[in-house]
Specification:
The protein has a domain of about 130 residues: P-loop containing nucleotide triphosphate hydrolases (Rossmann fold, 3-Layer(aba) Sandwich), CATH 3.40.50. Helix content is about 40%, strand content about 15%. A 7-stranded mixed beta sheet has the order 2-3-1-4-5-6-7, with helices on both faces. Helix 5 packs across helix 10. The protein is globular.
Length: about 270
């Protein structure tokens, strides 16, 4: 019997120029609709001439994407980031099931983002900390602290610990280079037995309490897939690529040699 098809509607929100439309380009490229080399520069959903000329989104745009290896479909709504288009965000909030919140790691949480968070109440949300390539010159501790600060601040604004790494709803990304890591993606890179281990802690992660997760002795493996180690992994990969020392990485972590973009294979 064919499994039931699931359709989810997700709106992408961000302050202007935080990489929202570029992120959607990357998602579209993952479907083969556009090439990864053009993602970020094409701005596929900015179909109007004035949008392309000004480099900003001026309307609502929609694209349908299929989730790999599942029977799930996603309708992604690209929303304008400028405050003058607040009405569009309001309309979108009536339609969407989920919100994808995009934040520039360098600029952090802006007053505009604070106002946008009002529309996300009682919805499932994904936090994308974007443009990590801007801060690759930082030390591991400095970059990790920057990411943790953003997560802490947005949780404070929301009034709950909605976002944390182990709950798989935080992504550290560089949308212009078509890559991002969440907990699941990172752990798949470092442990072939990921699926079995992940299933064993589903009930714990649903609790949404970082202390419960860190104190449970049966899931010590989570420590190896921690956010700090994910940041360390990205810095390590980027350093090797910069030095053109990638032969071992290709074999171990499936890093693409042919293309600087999308360096983490599915």
């Amino acid at each position: 019997m064919e499994s039931e098809k699931h359709l989810a509607i997700s709106a992408v929100i961000a302050h202007i120029d935080h990489g929202k439309t570029t992120l959607i380009d990357s998602l579209i490229a993952s479907q083969g609709i556009i090439s990864k080399s053009s993602a970020g520069n094409l701005r596929y959903l900015d179909t109007r001439t004035d949008e392309q000329q000004r480099g900003i989104t001026l309307k609502l745009s929609v694209v349908s994407l299929e989730e790999k290896n599942t029977n799930n479909s996603h309708i992604i709504i690209d929303t304008p980031g400028h405050v003058d288009f607040e009405t569009y965000i309001l309309r979108t909030s009536y339609l969407t099931d989920n919100f994808i919140i995009v934040i520039d790691i360098l600029e952090g949480i802006t007053p505009r983002m604070i106002s946008l968070l009002n529309y996300t109440k009682n919805r499932k949300c994904i936090l994308v900390i974007n443009k990590i390539d801007k801060l690759l010159y930082l030390s591991l501790d400095e970059l990790y602290c920057q990411i943790e600060t953003i997560i802490h601040k947005i949780n404070t604004l929301i009034g709950s610990d909605m976002f944390f790494w182990e709950n798989n709803n935080v992504i550290i990304a560089c949308s212009i280079l078509c890559y991002g890591l969440n907990f699941n993606t990172f752990y798949k890179k470092i442990d072939k037995n990921f699926k079995e281990k992940r299933e064993s802690i589903n009930d714990i992660t649903k609790i949404g309490n970082k202390e419960n997760i860190s104190q449970n002795k049966n899931i010590k493996y989570l420590q190896s897939a921690s956010l700090k180690n994910a940041v360390k992994f990205i810095l390590f990969i980027e350093d090797k690529i910069a030095k053109k020392d990638i032969e071992n990485l290709i074999k171990r972590f499936q890093v693409k040699k042919r293309d600087r973009k999308n360096i983490f294979m599915e």
